[in-house]
Specification:
By secondary structure, this protein is of the alpha+beta class. The protein contains three helices and four strands, in the order αββαββα. It has one domain: 2-Layer Sandwich (Gyrase A, domain 2). It is 42% helix and 23% strand.
Amino acid sequence: MGLPARLTEDEITAAVGDLDGWELVAPDRIRKEFRFADFAEAMAFMNRCAPFADELNHHPEWSNVYNRVVIELTTHDVDGLSALDMEFAARANAAAG
C-alpha cells in the first residue's frame, strides 16, 4: 500500500467545508476542539477514536484537558493534508455524537 495523495488547495477547501466544526489552521493542518460534560466523557471519546486511528494507520495529534479534546490532523508522510485526515475527522465527528 502506497502513500496517500496530498490534497490540493481546492480539495482541502471542499473537504473541510463538509466537516462540521473543523477548521484549516495552516496549509497542512486541520483542527477541532470537542467539549464534553466531564473528563470521563472526553476520555471515552478518545477511546472510541483509538480503534479507527489504528485501522487507518493514521494517528492524531491530540490533547485533553478535563472535558476538552483538541485534535489536529496532518499527514506527515506527504507534508500536507490527505484523504486520511478527512476520513479521521469525519469518524471523530461521528464518535463525538
